[in-house]
Amino acid sequence: KPTEQRLTRCLSIRQAKVNADMINVYAEADDSAAVISTLEKGAEIDAYEENGNYTLISCDNGIGIPEDDL
To answer: Rounded CA gap, 62 and 27, in Å?
Structure first.
């Protein structure tokens, strides 16, 4: 489960913008996990960690995984 503790170990942060009309951000790397936020096109996000199949991002409701990475 993503935690702030894991974020402190990250070496770099990159910024990105949402290109889709809307995406869900999940609490965990599982599309059955709770949706913690919905981001609209043009929203700026900070990516903290890229780990194989997913990217850990920050959003208004915490740290999560965008649906495009599931």
So the answer is: 8
